[in-house]
Specification:
mainly alpha; single chain; about 5% strand; globular; two-stranded parallel sheet; about 100 residues
Length: about 100
């Protein structure tokens, strides 16, 4: 089981997602592993209190399989937005 997980993660990195993340987004390098893991595990929503990560997550590609990053208090709103197929950049993360 562990080998399948490692192989799968290796395929994710070799498949270009890591390169795309580094080149095409504003995600800081120290957060890349978090984003890649959420993407790899096919998370719909990733809960975090890291407002910087949430802010920069809006630079991720607009694809259905990209997780939305939000705080717990924005979870219900984020679920609704995911179901409706869009995500609005919230002003409160500009601080």
């Amino acid at each position: 089981m562990m080998m399948n997980t490692l192989e799968s993660y290796g395929n994710l990195l070799n498949g270009g997602r890591a390169r795309d993340l580094a080149i095409e987004t504003l995600i800081p390098g120290e957060d890349a592993e978090i984003v890649l893991s959420a993407w790899h595990d096919k998370a719909d929503i990733f809960l975090t209190e890291d407002k910087r990560l949430i802010k920069f997550s809006f630079s991720l590609p607009l694809e259905p399989n990209i997780p939305a990053f939000c705080t717990l208090d924005k979870l219900e709103e984020t679920i609704t937005e995911k179901l409706e197929g869009f995500k609005i950049y919230p002003d409160e993360y500009d601080n």
